[in-house]
Amino acid sequence: MKGKISTMAVEGWSESITAYENSKNIDSAFKQTFLNKKNTTEYRYEELFKYFAYGHIKYQSPKGAYVNYPGEISGRGRKINGLEGFARFFPLAASWLSSNRSENVILNDTSYNLVNILKKGLLNGTDPICLEYWGDVSDYDQRIVEAADIALSLWISKDQIWVNLTSDERYRIVRWLELSINKKVGDNNWKLFPVTIIKVLESLGASNKKDLKYANELFETYKNKHYLGEGWYDDPPKGIDYYNAWSIHYALFWLDQIDPNFDHDFIKSTHSEFVKFYKFFFGKNGFPMMGRSVCYRLAAPSPIISATILSPNEISLGFAMRTLDLTWIHFIENNALQDGIMTQGYYDDDLRILDNYSGTGSCLWSLRSLIVAFYVDRSRPLFKADEQLLPVEVSNFEITNKTVGWTIIGDKSNHKISLRLNKNDSLKSYELLEYSFKNKFKELITKRPWRPDNTKALYENNIYSTDAELFIIK
Q1: Backbone torsions φ then ψ of 99, nearest 5 degrees
Q2: Which of 128, 151, 350, 427 is deepest in the core (most CB within 10 A)?
Q3: Is 143 helix (H, G, I), strand (E, B) or coil?
């Protein structure tokens, strides 16, 4: 029995990371700054970036390749969690740098050079003889997901980082990224990760015809199999959820930016179709949460922001800025940022809704709305835009998307937004299963996560609303 338990144990399970010194006071000061609307929008969002930059720096490993945040680790182990910590912040820092903001930032009275910090982690993580090497890549490997973010970061910040690397450094990075290209991936949004890597390498002058042919074939196969219509995709194994926003349309937007000739008409038209319905989801109380990966919730506005480039006739800068700002204000008011990181829940940490594949760095996918925002702001004055009222602030509405069978309902009187999943039985209601003693005991014995399977509560209720009754810890 002893040997069996050891074999099952997740790497790094027994290790513990504590919050950095004075984190609660820093949280409080930041919250006060961000929620003070007397401060300019641009200043507030620069302070938001600095909040996450400070967390990245305080939790980074000695050689910078891993960022090990406090919290619960995933079933993939602490090293993968640490890689996620690096890879999921990197695009935000890249977007900051590309928007002509300084690479030298003052964080809590200390000056840091972002380019040097990122290069250190990048070069050590891709060095096979370094103790912090990110490792070789196998089929269905989480490293494939993180490699796509790292590749994207290099493209966004190519004028600040890539152009200043030596040929040997570039070769080392390209070699590691290429490890993810021809591996088996899930038949879902994962198919877009190798496509992203290949298109970035092409843009940086490091691709080959074979890989480019593979990327085109993979994308066509994905699109033909999973595109449903009206901008929506099926995403197995769960089906239809917010992965359409924070993974699929996010990836398609970047593919279009990297290569405007890569199926531009399809990406642009489907993006526009998607936001025509999706723009009704947001108000001052957030949006009606449902589905998996709840801790990615702050990435939900991403396609609204990217639509200011792809579909400016559908989404104005002022509309996008208000969507972004109301969302971040709502969650920051409710303490969703703690100790330099997003909490692992809806507001507070909540193991009822933290998937077994989610760990200490995973929730940084929430940064995706900010990544797009800083990128947009470099060419369009997003942070200076006059905010435009959102639909629920203007009138009541009830709109159905027949393709996915969803109805979105807005009540102007109380700003409540409800999402009705029309195929679900209105007479059945599913509460979240608790993270119970049984779950804790299994984790104690096996040294791996055994969080409850809440698929029914997250996908099979008839109504989800901004009241968030399902997600608030009582």
Answers
A1: -90, 20
A2: 151
A3: helix
